[in-house]
Amino acid sequence: MAGRNGDMVSGARTRRRLPGRGATVGAVLAAGVAGALTTALTTALTTASPAKADILYDILDPILTPILTATTDVLAGIDPAAAADLTSFFDASGLSLATTDPAAALAAAVTADPASGAGSNVAIPLHVAETTEPYVDVSVNGGSQVPVLVDTGSSGLVIPWQDVGLSNLLGLGFPTGAGISGYSGGVDYFYVTFDTTVDYGGVLTTSSTPVDVELFSWPTSATSPADFQQFLADDEVDGILGVGSNDAGPGTSPLEAAGYPGVLVDEPAGELVVGANTAATPAEVTVSGAPLANLQVSINGAAPVPVTGDIDSGGVYGTMPQSVTDSLPAGTTITVYDNGGQQLYSYVTTATNDPTLVSASSDLDTGYVPFAQYPIYVDYTNDTTTFDLPS
């Protein structure tokens, strides 16, 4: 996950992330303020004393750089020469458009927090709301515990600033980055990243790990929720804990950044286990990719059809490409296999538990169903997903 498909079809809801994007909506917004922000920063840096200028640069550069990068990325698709000129202008203003490197940020976080990369396993209490919403409680920088959706379909811990708390937010220090991201059918938002301490359910604490604090948001359509909080209101959560590996949006999993080899989403046992795969079985099946993987799907026993699958604990009821079927009435049997034909899970749709039909070119989103049936392990080291099927 991490977003909702705006239209409701047969009661189905889906989510997906829009990874760290310089997308059109965000970039247009950025373009509207980029010139003014750059001018203000340049003026401040050139008129302030050297010591104050250094402080201003440290505070503003990580915030402005992603906005300006999004602007030039979109402009490059329209007018490459103008984009090059704009990049040169920003560089001349003292801003580097290559400072937000996710790989570098991840490496730095792991280096800063090596203790949590040890071999011990920690079981964090995992709850499920509304049948489809797995969540854990987290505390940022010693603040109050807040429920966050456990989402294998995205990466990064995203929490609105209101749930971090203003006084707590001011104690986080300088941001390490910023960006614009969003969730389909829901909201786009601007976030600032801090490296700070995160407590998970009172049983695990990691330090110097990235937290994306949502500062403001806006709806993506006239029918979308008005803001980030309304977007999550029906889910009984206040934020999103993206624990996926290869999807890159909007950041990196704080647990991966803390040096852990993987996470086990074990809904049947009510645990999110950080560390090794403690539910491994002789019948387990491992697929390459986390969450995106090459899968096959069969409808009512028909020949399996190859699809790109999004193994997505936050995907609610999931999605089904119309290239597979154009109808999913109640009573339809859906069976999903790995790329080699090994069955991963199967279920029968109902009036409410049915995937949303999406365009033929879209991915299959598993939604919550396989996570409700078996423990599923996300392996950061090998970029794989393991279904711990019963022997």
Give your account of this protein's structure.
The chain is an alpha+beta fold. It folds into three domains: about 25-100; about 105-275, Acid Proteases (Cathepsin D, subunit A, domain 1), CATH 2.40.70; about 285-385, Beta Barrel (Cathepsin D, subunit A, domain 1). It is built from nine helices and 22 strands. The chain has helices spanning about 25-45, 50-80, 80-90, 100-110, 160-165, 165-170, 230-235, 255, 370-375, and strands spanning about 15-20, 120-125, 125-130, 135-140, 145-150, 155-160, 175-185, 185-200, 205-220, 240-245, 260-265, 270-275, 285-290, 290-300, 305-310, 320, 335-340, 345-350, 355-360, 365, 375-380, 385. A six-stranded mixed beta barrel has the order 4-5-10-6-9-8. α1 packs antiparallel against α2 and α2 (about 50-80) runs antiparallel to α3.
What order do the helices and strands come in, and which of them pair?
Layout: E1 17-18, H1 24-47, H2 50-78, H3 80-92, H4 102-112, E2 122-125, E3 127-129, E4 133-140, E5 146-151, E6 155-160, H5 161-164, H6 166-170, E7 177-183, E8 187-200, E9 204-219, H7 228-233, E10 239-243, H8 254-257, E11 262-266, E12 271-274, E13 285-288, E14 292-299, E15 305-310, E16 319-321, E17 333-338, E18 343-348, E19 356-358, E20 364-365, H9 369-373, E21 376-379, E22 384-387
Parallel strand pairs: 5-10, 6-9, 15-20, 16-19
Antiparallel strand pairs: 1-7, 2-12, 3-4, 4-5, 4-8, 6-10, 7-8, 8-9, 11-12, 11-21, 13-22, 14-15, 14-17, 17-18, 21-22
Helix pairs in contact: 1-2, 2-3
